[in-house]
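User: Could you check the structure of this?
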Amino acid sequence: MIFCILRFMLYLVGSAFVFYSIYFV
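Assistant: Sure, the predicted structure tokens are below.
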């Protein structure tokens, strides 16, 4: 359960980082 939540958080952070990078570049 915790691993699933951690994986979801990591996916969310990664998606946000990619979106942030594309938006600024």
